[in-house]
Amino acid sequence: MKQPVDFLERYWGHSSFRPLQEDIINAVLQNQDTFALLPTGGGKSVCFQVPGLMREGICIVVSPLIALMKDQVNNLKEKGIKALAIPSGIHYNELDTLLDNCIYGNYKFLYLSPERLQQELVKERIQRMQVNLIAVDEAHCISQWGNDFRPAYRNIALLRELHPSVNLIALTASAKPNVVKDIVTQLDFIDPKIFKASFNRENIAYMVIDTEDKYYQLEQILIKNKGCSIVYARTRRATLEICRILESKGFSSLYYHGGISSKEKLLNLQLWSSGQKEIMVATTAFGMGIDKADVKNIIHIHLPESIESYYQESGRAGRNGESAYAVILKGRNDINALRNQFLETLPTVDFLKQAYRKLCNYFQISYGEGELTSHQFNFNAFCKTYGFDTTKTFNALQSLDRNSIIALSQEFNHQSKLIFLVSNQALFKYIDTHKELSILVKSILRTYGGIFEILMKIDLGLLSEKTSMDEATILALLRKLHDDGIANFQYLNSDAEITFLVPREDDKTINRISKHIEQQYQIKEAQVNAVIDYIDNTDECKNKQLLRYFGEDTKKDCGICSVCIHNQGKKPANPKMLSKEIILLLQEGPLGSRKIIELLDHDSKTILLVLQILIENDILEITPANKYKIKHT
Predict the structure, then answer these.
(1) What angle, rounded to 10 degrees, do the helices at 390-402 and 349-362 form?
(2) CA–CA separation, 570 vs 600, rounded Å?
(3) What CATH number labels 4-196?
(4) HEC per residue, 336-363
(5) What confidence score (pLDDT) does residue 16 get?
(6) Of 119, 111, 37, nearest to 69 (Cα)?
(7) Tens digit of pLDDT for each residue in 56-66?
(8) What is the torsion angle, in degrees rounded to the nearest 10, for the CA atoms of residue 162, residue 515, residue 143 and residue 328?
């Protein structure tokens, strides 16, 4: 009989498991309910994919992250494993066909969003499937104390009713002890096997650096610690700005955020993953499924929104076991900015009611109707129509999405559809006299079968690759086909799709989730305060602080974080002695504060304080070039 390692070697090309993976897999194969807490990079997916392959039948995977579902399905398909994903938002007929494929098509993995478990069709088909395992990814979402609670996750209990003899594995990368306990309770585990990997990453130096010149500090870190890096910024605009600055300084960098096209995302990821570009400047949209082993630096130029997200993002560094750095750059106004972004912009229950009513009106949905209808959605146009603040409105839509009122699919691209209106013969006669359209039309015909019969979605990026034309040229040619009556071409200018998951009942709809909304605000407030406590605590080892947050105590200082280095190497300076050192240094000529801090082995804050004292006492003066020099009387 084949062992788990045989499947690991055949499909993943590895001859041994990472820590805890094999123990978790064996527990699953022994039909035990299993909980796996494996920090980022611990290889969670292998823990259910290997036993799913080893058993007869199909493994059902519940995940709230559409992008991660697609990523895992694509990876499985590349290995020759039959898998499919059914996120929210697809239509009934397509859903019907996909579920039939799972029953009759010898598929090994079915990825579902938790909202799908509310549908009778889905429940009926799952009952007919030969299910070999139920896997709950991002399991912290089922806990009301989790950092991304989704009430729809409570539907997972239905799977246990449909297949009571099938065991379940729950997986997450970050959960505090009370969340772990709640997950086990909510999933009705019987005599569970619980596996928790340590959150301790001995090779990562956690740093918090106070600075009023973040770009200079960023440059110094990247010069000092050369290697593959990710710079996390809070906004899309910031990613572009930082990328341009780094490029102007000679660094090899590119950017990544939710607003760029799928084609550009893929290209940038490939350039960074292959080492052709060294630095990725990104929003938190970058990271899911990223498993690059040699990342040297993770730098947060803005404060993270929670310790959970910071730990996951910083955990993308040093997966090869070599020394790595996780740095937060802290400025004077950062704490206020953090509170403003993640607390002040959270929607109240009243605003949520207002936004939901306006959303229904926007799409002309009548009271009691709208369930499972999908609509193209231009977010900015919606906000402009009703005079809504964009940040608060976006947070309101996300809240409606998390609470299964709507499904918000952010595509951020233009959906294009095409159908040819003339016969095949007439089409070729047309392109004989319009040679500029020949390559494009032939590429469309080879790519999209049935385009003479139905209006089909077409991918302009894919056509651009096949024809070597830019998308603007393709768009112009498709419009010509439309104008000449050869085709019906629809170019939908929208940046999202919204699916209403429940009938419209206005305030009643929101009242059902108001308790969860208020509780989530309290959790978010606690998370923001935990980040502030972490960056402000300059007395205790940073690694100790992180471990304690996740319920793991240690008496040993890491020796490599910003606090430990400060306590070891930079003893509190005597201001008189430091003054003499500065004056001695400046006898060689004027120097800027950056250079003085670089040359003196003392805390930067103390150096700046002493420089100010020397200025006030007329010992030093500042030159027009903003350098310090000895004042001659």
Answers:
(1) 90
(2) 10
(3) 3.40.50.300
(4) HHHHHHHHHCCCCHHHHHHHHHHHHHHC
(5) 92
(6) 111
(7) 999 999 987 77
(8) 140
User: What pLDDT score does 89 carry?
Assistant: 59
Whole-number Å distance between alpha carbons of 175 and 173: 7
Q: Which two tokens stand for residue 113?
A: 């969003």
* Residues 479, 360 contacting (CB under 8 angstroms): no
Q: What is the CATH number of domain 204-332?
A: 3.40.50.300
CATH architecture of the region 570-630? Orthogonal Bundle (1.10)
Cβ-based neighbour number of residue 92 at 10 Å: 10
CA distance 416 to 539: 57
Instruction: Report the pLDDT value the prediction gives residue 412, as an integer from 0 to 100.
Output: 41
- Total residue length of the chain: 633
Helix (H, G, I), strand (E, B) or coil at 271: helix
Please work out, in degrees rounded to the nearest 5, the angle formed at the alpha carbon of residue 278 by the alpha carbons of 604 and 257. 90
Residue 413, pLDDT score: 43
Question: What is each CA distance from 473 to 64, 261, 490, in whole angstroms?
Answer: 37, 17, 16
CA-closest candidate to residue 228, choices 268, 187, 272? 272
Q: Write out the H or E segment, with its range, that includes residue 373.
A: strand 373-377
Please choose, from the candidates 111, 49, 54, the residue with its C-alpha nearest in 3D space to the C-alpha of residue 84: 111
Class of the domain covering 340-412+496-524 = mainly alpha
For residue 410, count other CB atoms closer than 10 A to its CB.
19
Here the tokens at position 399 are: 């809240």
pTM of the model as a whole: 0.70
Q: In the chain, which stretches have pLDDT less than 70?
A: 1, 41-42, 67, 87-89, 146-147, 288-289, 410-415, 461, 492-495, 569-573, 633
Query: What is the CA 318 to chain-centroid distance, rounded?
Result: 19
What's the N-to-C CA distance of the chain in angstroms?
Answer: 91
d(CA 16, CA 9): 8
Q: What is the reported pLDDT for 146?
A: 66
Task: Identify the CA nearest to 233 among candidates 158, 287, 270.
Answer: 287
Q: Are 197 and 550 in contact (CB under 8 A)?
A: no
CA distance 445 to 119: 36
Instruction: Centre a 10 Å sphere on the Cβ of residue 395 and count the other Cβ atoms it contains.
Output: 19
DSSP assignments along 378-426, one per residue: -HHHHHHHHT--HHHHHHHHHHHHHTTSEEEE---S-EEEEEE-S-HHH
Give me the pLDDT at residue 3, please: 93
Are 64 and 114 a contacting pair, CB within 8 Å? yes
**Do 86 and 113 meet the contact criterion of CB atoms below 8 Å apart?**
yes
pLDDT, residue 151, reads 75
Q: Which amino acid appears at position 21 of this protein? A: Q
Q: In degrees rounded to 5, what are phi and psi of residue 589?
A: 140, 165
d(CA 533, CA 296): 26
Task: Retrieve residue 71's tokens.
Answer: 């990523």
Computed from CA positions of residues 3, 4, 7, 13, in that sequence, does the dihedral angle turn out positive or negative? negative
Residue type at 9 in one-letter notation: E
Beta strand 228-232 with 295-300 is parallel
Of 502, 418, 456, 621, which Cα lies nearest the Cα of 151?
502
Identify the pLDDT of residue 93. Answer: 79
* Distance (Å, whole) CA 336 – CA 531: 12
Task: Return phi, psi of residue 301, to 5°.
Answer: -85, -15
